[in-house]
Amino acid sequence: MADMPALEAAQPESWILLLNQGTSMQIAKYFILIAIVATGIFSDQASKKWVTEHLKNKPVLTVIPGALELGYTENRGMVFGINNRRGSTATRGVLRIIRILMSIGLIAYIIYSRKRPVIVHIPLLLILSGAIGNIIDSFTFGHVVDFIHMHAGKVLDWPFFYNLADAYVCIGMGIIIIYSLFFEKKGSRKTTSKWAPVSPSDSSSPPPQE
Q1: Residues 46, 109, 28, CA angle at the centre, nearest 5°?
Q2: 148 phi/psi in degrees, rounded to 5
Q3: Residue 2: phi, psi to the nearest 5?
Q4: What are the catalytic residues?
Q5: SS3 content of the chain, % helix, strand, coil (to 5)
Q6: Does 201 fall in a domain?
Q7: All residues at 6 or more sequence positions from 168 whose CB lies less than 8 Å from its CB, including other chains
Q8: pLDDT in the model for residue 20
Q9: Is 192 within a domain?
Q10: Number of structural domains, the chain?
Q11: Which of 1, 48, 133, 160 is the most buried (most CB within 10 A)?
Q12: In angstroms, how far is the first alpha carbon of the chain from the final one?
């Protein structure tokens, strides 16, 4: 019985330590989320800047014959050059608004689900970085810079170019679709129990009082 006051006195400090650890983990998680988006936007903008400086008004550069080419193009339409040069000013304005609304929606959802693991947010962060990258282009230049052309000879030859932002959006969407089709239904319960965030109050409970 003589040791009980010391034990009770140590309990508040242990709870404060757990709360501090939880806060540090949340700060680190937010830093990772921001870093992923910033890296995606930076790589997209840096690649477009390089292409504009070195390939504008020049012949297409063949990187892998029959598979990969780089060339400067201006896209005033949708992703992968769809409806390029045929859209009116109003259409371009609508596309700009759609990109902005999509970005706002993604940010709101990421904030709402911020307690989920970082790995769950990765496809959403890829889509967000791609959307913001193209939004920056549309406001800065009035068009989006595309420069990547991938194909398989003449068999699979998509006639349009795209950029890293488009690639990020497609990769993010692809991850979400694959996960939804093949993993979410079969392992949703296991995934929830395994990846559900644990707060300090859940991970440790006070000892029963006698």
Answers
A1: 65
A2: -105, 130
A3: -70, -20
A4: 146, 166
A5: 65, 10, 25
A6: no
A7: 40, 44, 126, 127, 129, 130, 133
A8: 53
A9: no
A10: 1
A11: 133
A12: 11
How high is the pLDDT of residue 23?
72
In whole angstroms, what is the distance from residue 146 CA to residue 41 CA?
15
B/e letters for 7-30, b = 16+ CB within 10 Å, e = fewer, are: eeeeeeeeeeeeeeebeeeeeebe
Beta bridge partners of 69: 62, 149
Q: What is the pTM of this model?
A: 0.71
Residue 196 forms part of a structural domain: no
Cα–Cα nearest to 84, from 138, 157, 160: 160
Question: Minimal CA–CA distance to 126: which of 78, 88, 173?
Answer: 173
| Contact partners, residue 133, CB within 8 Å, separation at least 6 | 40, 41, 44, 45, 163, 164, 165, 168
Q: Which domain holds residue 130?
A: 22-184
What would the pLDDT profile of 161-209 be if each residue is shown by its tens digit?
899 999 999 999 999 899 888 877 654 444 444 434 444 444 444 544 5
107 belongs to a structural domain: yes
Between these two residues, 45 and 161, which has the higher pLDDT value?
45
Question: Of the candidates 114, 150, 110, which has an alpha carbon nearest to the alpha carbon of residue 128?
Answer: 110
Provide the pLDDT for residue 146.
92
pLDDT at 80 over 70: no
Cα distance between residue 11 and residue 23, in whole Å: 19
**59 or 201, higher pLDDT:** 59
pLDDT top residue among 205 and 73: 73
